[in-house]
Amino acid sequence: MLPYAIAIACAVPWFLVRLLVDVHAQPAPVPPLAISVLTGLAIVGAAFLLSWAAEVFQLDVSQALALALLALIAVLPEYAVDTVFAWKAASDPEFARYAIANMTGSNRLIVGFGWASVVIVAWWRAGRRVSISAGRRGSLEPDGTLVNGSVSLASQQAVELAALAVASVYAFVIPLKGQIDLIDAIVLVAIFGVYAWATSRMPSEEPELEGPAAAVGVLPVVQRRAVIFGLFLYATVTIFLSAEYFAEGLVETGKSLGFDEFVLVQWLAPLASEAPEFLVALMFAWRGLAGAGLRTLVSSTVNQWTLLVGTLGVVYRIGQEVSSNPVAGGGLPLDPRQTEELLLTSVFSLFALAMIADFRLSVGEAALIGGAFFFQVVGAQVAPDRTVFQFVMIGAFVAATAYLLATSSARRKGIISLPARIRGALSGASG
User: Fold this and answer.
1) Disulfide-capable partner of 265 in 101, 307, 342, 347 (CB 3.0 to 4.6 Å)?
2) pTM for this one?
């Protein structure tokens, strides 16, 4: 139980500061950088607790639903930080751009770093010689193929891929409107609702728990569920007490140190909130369950494109209703930089989806996704004209997506087969 103790203790320094110091006093008694570090540490610890608890939760629900819930719960810190930005944006326009920055950064991290890392780690773990299956160790999905150095996706993952494709395509509508509003919330939350319903109907199988999750999984049912509930509660309270200060600390740190606050919020905040999720997925890959790890990250991408983006518009609107100094307008506004970031994130998601449209991802393809991600991130910081570079990258990802689909009949067939795969998954569950 030592890992649980360490994760719980991560929040103690921040709790002590909140208890003993008036962090709202002026001049600030605690530097913004120190607040960012303390709250970030608390959020990381809470995210680990959430991830372990959600993994054990597979014992009580279907694996597909548990992985979807794991992805949803693991991104709870991301929801909390983005919600803070959207709420504050209702009375202070400066914070509107940070909500988009955090969301686009976390999405591209999950796809560009997360998806690629799972395949590469699994390939390395397998000795770089043997095949990697998306199913349980030694198993083969009925409609999957094992290709040396590739992860073959299970047919049931058509549910996640279809939901992500629909959400990514719809995301192009948002920049055209120049805001995230209640209409977007209705559409995106509806997509998530259908996705959650479909995953809840997937067949269940006994999970293979290891590490901290296994220590809780062997407990008697009543005790195990009580521990899971306690972990969820403690982690949620920790995130609730830390998210606002973490968000504000990042912004103030950027200003005080002369850094671009947008870049800090876009890349540093997701690194803290997504780190446990990445580790969970990589642990799946290391244990020979690369498909489960990849499925977790794909589910997280779906959650962020649907529930998270939709939530931003709702929170912003509520913030306007209760604010004494509301910002004019009905939806969370997008400035030119946010628009280009949202477009870039959308086309990058579609590029990655095109790469796995044939229901497999090789090491080379994973490296290409990861390389494209890092090239875009670094290039945007060093390019003479960031906006021109970003739109060049948008065009490049559109062209690459079109090329992948035009030159690969397997990918086109994979897309055409999505409805049949989804029906097969649901009929198999009901059977």
Assistant:
1) 101
2) 0.80
